[in-house]
Write a structure and sequence with these properties.
Number of strands: 11
Shape: globular
CATH topology: outer membrane lipoprotein receptor (LolB), chain A
Mean pLDDT: 84
Helix content: 25-40%
Number of helices: 8
Order of helices and strands: HHEEEEEEHHHEEHHEEEH
Length: about 240
């Protein structure tokens, strides 16, 4: 763990430290950092779950600006949703209620709380990929592809996606793997698969999913935030 922390510090100090003889882990971490330094980019996330799974999220489309807005939209079942974030401030739109601040959403029950947790836990690809690289056991390189099993702790963390870090949930037999695709030293795509048995508040279920994220529009993406969303972000107490 200390070695991985030092690696990230060195990469942040200067890209020249990632030389031609860099390890696959160093190259993957540098690629995620390089993506995070871009002015803007877009991405598409697709989550595949087994047939018959009770929760079947639809595809998500995201856009982000460095030190600016992040906008993500998607579907869950028959419902569509959209999130806009600026720093720590978040606005959500899930249909009938229109745009709401995080404080307004958290006053609700059931699905509203789930949406709030999803918004709070949202990570842009550059950040999520860096976390995945940190959770890789032993990255191997084959051309532009880097792959590795995930550590048990990393798989467990991904299986307990909930507010407050999965508080109240336990996981047995967590396992997973991750793959990264690089292009010209910048992250172009990544995929992770996790599975395990999750018990939350006495309810046990199998969690098995594969998430694929493809990055596009690096340097050419434009984030157009709806006026109502901006109002919520600017309101006090958001």
């Amino acid at each position: 763990m200390k070695k991985k922390c030092l690696l990230r510090i060195l990469i942040l100090m200067g890209g020249s430290l990632v030389a031609a003889d860099a390890t696959p882990e160093e190259e993957a971490v540098a690629a995620a950092k390089n993506l995070g330094q871009q002015a803007n980019y877009s991405w598409k996330t697709v989550i595949v779950v087994p047939e018959g799974a009770p929760f079947r999220p639809g595809p998500m489309q995201g856009k982000t600006e460095k030190d600016g807005f992040t906008q993500v939209a998607g579907t869950f079942g028959d419902n569509s949703w959209e999130i806009v974030r600026q720093g720590e401030k978040v606005a959500l739109n899930s249909g009938d209620d229109g745009w709401q601040s995080m404080a307004e959403v958290e006053k609700g029950e059931g699905p509203a709380r789930f949406r709030a947790a999803m918004a709070r836990n949202l990570k842009v690809p550059a950040v999520q990929a860096d976390d995945l690289a940190a959770g890789a056991k032993d990255l191997k390189k084959e051309g532009d592809l880097y792959s590795s099993p995930l550590t048990e702790d990393a798989a467990k963390s991904l299986l307990t996606f909930r507010r407050n870090g999965g508080e109240g949930a336990t996981v047995t037999n967590p396992a997973g793997s991750v793959r990264f695709w690089l292009k010209d030293g910048v992250l172009a795509k990544y995929e992770f698969q996790v599975k395990g048995t999750v018990n939350f508040n006495g309810n046990e279920f199998q969690n098995d999913r594969t998430t694929t994220v493809e990055i596009s529009g690096v340097g050419t993406t434009k984030v157009e935030v709806p006026a109502e969303a901006k109002k919520k972000l600017e309101a006090k107490g958001t």
